[in-house]
């Protein structure tokens, strides 16, 4: 029997582990109730596969170490690929989309365990990494992970700055509009309308 070479995992949490608010409650509930039967159907469809695994993990229970190791930050998250190097799934979550993706993607993937299917460039890269001392490879992985975290942090900071700037601009706009109105804009328009009405009456 062949070993599993690709997996598709739904990494989730029980409902009370998610912070629900009036703003996200409907979407959260709708997303979960819609995805659950589709995901269970997908697991059934791949239950007998000898090379692909479709499963789910409860990140609040025994599966928490697995979720932590794979950088899960939101629920439900879907990861796929080589079991030792899972990637984020970013496609649609209805059954047809998931089934199509799984059928096309859950197959032998270029990796150290399947180097024979890699192109020459990736074979050379794998050979280089395998030849590195363990400490050196750990250092390289840590540096790469740090760059990813820094990119995520920079993005979040940028979004926060944009939100703060948006709020400031909104407040300035509203204050300017209010000041203009308080300076007599309403009376100006009323006087113009009154004058126009009076002029019309005089013509009669």
List the helices and strands and how they pair.
Layout: E1 6-12, H1 25-45, E2 52-58, H2 64-69, E3 77-81, E4 87-88, H3 95-105, H4 120-131, H5 134-203
Parallel strand pairs: 1-2
Antiparallel strand pairs: 1-3, 3-4
Structural write-up:
By secondary structure, this protein is of the alpha+beta class. The chain has a domain at 6-110: Glutaredoxin (3-Layer(aba) Sandwich), CATH 3.40.30. Helices cover 59% and strands 10% of the residues. The protein contains five helices and four strands; from the N terminus they run βαβαββααα. It has helices spanning 25-45, 64-69, 95-105, 120-131, 134-203; strands at residues 6-12, 52-58, 77-81, 87-88. It has a four-stranded mixed sheet with strand order 2-1-3-4. The chain is elongated and about 95 Å long. Mean pLDDT is 80; it is low at 13-21 and 28-33.
Fourth-level CATH superfamily of the domain at 6-110: Glutaredoxin
> Would you state the CATH class of the domain at 6-110?
Alpha Beta
Low-confidence runs (pLDDT<50, min 5 residues)? 13-21, 28-33
Give a count of the beta strands, DSSP E runs of length 2 or more. Answer: 4
Q: Alpha-carbon distance between the termini?
A: 101 Å
The 3D shape can be described as elongated
Alpha plus pi helix count? 5
Proportion of beta-strand residues = 5-15%
C-alpha-based Rg, rounded: 29 Å
- Please state the average pLDDT score: 80
Task: Tell me what the CATH architecture of the domain at 6-110 is.
Answer: 3-Layer(aba) Sandwich
CATH topology of the domain at 6-110: Glutaredoxin
Helix content: 55-70%
Main sheet summary: 4 strands, mixed
- The strands making up the biggest β-sheet line up spatially as 2-1-3-4
Structural class, by secondary structure, is alpha+beta
**SSE string, helices as H and strands as E:** EHEHEEHHH
